[in-house]
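Hallway conversation turned thread

IA: we were arguing at lunch whether anyone had actually written out Thioesterase superfamily protein end to end. Turns out nobody had. So, for the record, here is the sequence (240 residues) and right after it the structure tokens. Reply here if something looks off.
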Amino acid sequence: MTTSDAIVVPELYVGYPEVAFGGYIAGLLAERSGARTVRVDFRGPVPVEVPVRIAETADEGVELGEAERPLAAARPAELPIEVPAAPSWDEADAAAERFRAAPPSGVVDCFGCGLRTADRGLRVHGTPVPDLGLVASAWTPSHAFADADGLLPTQLVWGALDCPGHWAGRFLGTLRAGAVTASLTGTVLRPVVAGEPHISYAWLVSESGRKHTMGVALATAEGELCGVSEALWIDPKAAA
């Protein structure tokens, strides 16, 4: 037995133009699922400002889009991933400043990593930390996105677990501009408090052809983990 309704993703939450930000969509489905750890598979672009069906499935999952051809689907999962220690706040802050001072090619107006003001985006801006084999960003979530308890909503925490993987692939591997998230498996370990300093960091796990797997972690400024994810990114097809 399944139940369904519809959601409308506000235009604010775009990744690529007119396409909903993958981390936000994953967070919505994860929250709806209720499972501690969730894998979200993306099968097509989710539009913004358009009602889209969301439904619970018989196998304890959640899907977005038409039943015959869902755009994204979530299910409970496990996440056996080794997480390196977080860089220091100073290292992460310097990395974020490098991104903003000299934005890398391929930056778009993304809710997660675009060059927006703090009240319009997450501003997770990661570049490599010397000698650590990872990218990092000092990050203080804006009070503009806090809920009534001063916490960042689940879907936005998942947003912070998406984009850093892209930049790990770009800076540390061979991921190309225009790549998309094919799947995102994540878990939120503790609440993320708006206005408090955090460290976002990501590393390269593996690459094979157009497929690139990255790990992402979100920690407090003291290094305590708040969330972890592993993402599969796919390069755009080469031009004919």
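OS: looked through it. DSSP finds four helices and eleven strands in the chain.
IA: good, adding that to the notes. The mean pLDDT is 95.
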